[in-house]
Amino acid sequence: MTLSRRSVLRTAAAASVAALPMSQVLAQPKAEFTYKYANNLPVTHPMNLRAKEMAAAILAETKGRVDIQIFPASQLGNDTDMLSQLRAGGIEFFTLSGLILSTLVPGAAITGLGFAFPDYDTVWKALDGDLGAHVRKEIGKAGLVAMDNIWDNGFRQITSSTKPIQTADDLKGFKIRVPVSPMWTSMFKAFDSAPASINFAEVYSALQTKVVDGQENPLAIIDTAKLNEVQKYCSVTNHMWDGFWFLANRRAWDRLPADLRTIVAKHINAAGLKQRTDVAAMNATLQKSLTEKGMVFNNAKADTFRNRLRQAGFYTEWKAKFGDEAWSLLERYSGKLG
Ligand code: X2X
């Protein structure tokens, strides 16, 4: 059998296309808008898995006009650096905890108040409802754009290399890493702990070198960032819920023609909803596999923590900071606090 010259050429052309990375094939010719999306989480976390799908869907539906490049795992700097880059326009998209964002937008910390939300149902009602709308408006005033649906981080648990945390008393003097945010520091000061503000990019090594004895994060992060390699105990406290606002630089967002903005927002929000389901499932099932890897779990006595926060005036202090209006918006979902 002889191959015609044409079919040989066709086969050769197909082979050379197949040798190119997929992103180059799809992005030909060069996209009109190439935007960077940066975050602080491991590439294996659902945030990055869903973001990858999202970027592909945006590239396809905009017919190659919008190319979102993902920079996971603090590749472009720690959270503090990335927030500055987002404001300056060096990166166009960034996902950030409302509590860390509160260094710029004080009101954004309200969704992470200690023991405010009893379960995910209440979280999503509040965040997709009036409380979320209130925070997004505050973010808008600071010159950033927040997409409608916040992405999940989860309910946070305390890990330690030295001892299980059973009650609030066990936190006295405990050297714990907290993210860079006044509310986190205030909360662990109320427990009489010794909180150290450290960006997530430095957490693994801070635990490994024993700069701190513990940290707190949802199970999906403990697992994907492999914090179990440097932490022995995990105390289930559910002491607060945390989520990631999907933020855009205002000028970069406004530069997109309206039809492209609609497509991009649609896919970011849809990916966020899927990411929520993934994270909730991981947070519900990871205790088993982390135990198999050698972590020792205990169910902490949540009431002791909540009472300590009340006694220390934590709720009174934060109510005054957020103001009556925002506070009653939160209590509409959480029930009476403090
Ligand atoms: O820094 C953390 O602990 C993390 C990853 O949970 C946040 O981004 C708030």
The average pLDDT is 93
Instruction: Compute the number of helices.
Output: 15
Which spans have pLDDT < 50 for at least 5 consecutive residues?
Answer: 1-18
Q: Which class do the helix and strand fractions yield? A: alpha/beta
Please trace the helix and strand order, writing H or E for each element.
HHEHEHEHHHEEEEHEHEHEEHHEHHH
> Considering the protein shown, what is the CATH homologous superfamily?
Bacterial extracellular solute-binding protein, family 7
Task: Please estimate the helix content.
Answer: 40-55%
Bound chemical compounds: (2S)-2-hydroxy-2-methyl-3-oxobutanoic acid
Kindly state the number of beta strands.
12
How does the overall form come out from the CA principal axes? Answer: globular
Question: What is the annotated CATH architecture?
Answer: 3-Layer(aba) Sandwich
**Biggest β-sheet strands, sense, barrel:** 6 strands, mixed
Quaternary structure: single chain
Explain what you see.
With 338 residues, this protein is of the alpha/beta class. The chain has a single domain, classed as D-Maltodextrin-Binding Protein, domain 2. The chain has helices at 5-19, 22-26, 46-61, 79-88, 98-101, 120-127, 130-141, 182-190, 203-208, 219-224, 250-255, 258-292, 302-311, 314-322, 324-334, and strands spanning 33-38, 66-71, 93-97, 144-146, 151-155, 157-160, 175-178, 194-197, 214-217, 233-236, 241-249, 296-299. The strands form three sheets. Strands 1, 2, 3, 4, 5 and 11 form a six-stranded mixed β-sheet that branches. Helix 3 (46-61) links the parallel strand 1 and strand 2. Mean pLDDT is 93; it is low at 1-18. The structure holds (2S)-2-hydroxy-2-methyl-3-oxobutanoic acid. (2S)-2-hydroxy-2-methyl-3-oxobutanoic acid is lined by residues 40, 97, 100, 153, 179, 200, 217, 221, 242.
